[in-house]
Design goal:
alpha+beta, PH-domain like, 3-stranded antiparallel beta sheet, elongated
Length: 154
């Protein structure tokens, strides 16, 4: 049994027959599982930094200049502009400080996906997917699609 921790207190667990994902507090998915025999592919991708915070930070800096110019009282305008500029700098700092993430996603033959963020280290995700692929290779093949034989009735 192998485990892979995700960013938001969730985890991937590999059992003898399936991959189980228990999502954390920030995850969209609370619980998901897939049989090993149904997993068709695995995708490990990098999640870029959130550009949205950098864009809002830039807009906020221009808004701070606008607030400073529009408010007639100089003291109130300066304090309001400083407040807006500080929030904008925090948003821009969030863009530069937040590391890029790694996203692991298992695709199944039924069309569903199991995925989650696993942090910034792709080596852990690659090792977990190798464990999943090895466990899938060790599964005993099933010869027939149905467990019962259909004998003709006489």
């Amino acid at each position: 049994m192998s485990k892979l921790e995700s960013n938001d207190d969730g985890n991937f667990t590999l059992t003898h027959a399936r991959v189980i994902f228990r999502g954390g507090s920030d995850s969209n998915s609370v619980y998901a599982s897939a049989y090993l025999k149904d997993i068709s592919s695995v995708e490990i991708s990098r999640r870029p930094r959130a550009r949205r915070s950098a864009a809002w930070g830039t807009v906020g800096l221009f808004a701070a200049i606008g607030v400073w110019q529009v408010i007639p009282s100089s003291n109130v305008g300066v304090f309001a502009a400083i407040a807006v500029a500080v929030v904008s700098m925090i948003l821009m700092g969030d863009y530069w400080i937040r590391p890029t993430g790694v996203h692991v996603e298992f695709h199944t033959t039924g069309g569903s996906n199991i995925g989650g963020e696993i942090g910034g280290k792709s080596e852990l995700g690659i090792q977990f997917t190798r464990d999943v692929e090895d466990a899938k290779r060790r599964l005993v093949p099933i010869r027939t699609k149905s467990p019962y034989r259909n004998y003709p009735s006489s």
